[in-house]
Amino acid sequence: MTAKVSYEAVEVGTELPAQSFPVTRATLVQYAGASGDFNPIHWNERFAREVGLPDVIAHGMFTMAEAIRVVTDWAGDPGAVVEYGVRFTKPVVVPDDDEGALIEVSGKVAAKLEDNLVRVDLLAVCDGKKVLGMSRAVVRLA
Hints:
- The structure is a single chain.
- Helices cover 23% and strands 36% of the residues.
- The protein has three helices and five strands, in the order βαααββββ.
- The protein is elongated.
- The termini are close together.
């Protein structure tokens, strides 16, 4: 696959379509099974509170993966992402109810680089709090 977005068609400031990603306790169980990360802070409320967390929290890598979907969906090819990094600033707290949590992600082109590369800065928010800091991806466009 190749990115579907043309390098010439984007400018600094181009906004990517924002997306929202629901997270429930069932989502966390599924991710734990797929990733092998069965840390009890992601499924055991009592344990999470005992270690000082407000409740069960989403896996950091899960949160990171959901955020980059904004970029991969926009580019049209997950392989177009050549670099991606974040800082985890706040946990995504996932209550034990039918709604869970909602991770809201937006992004925009922050820089045009050489070789059809662009840097995309992402903003990931849950419950009004920024959950990822310095969330940046370098993407090779068509």
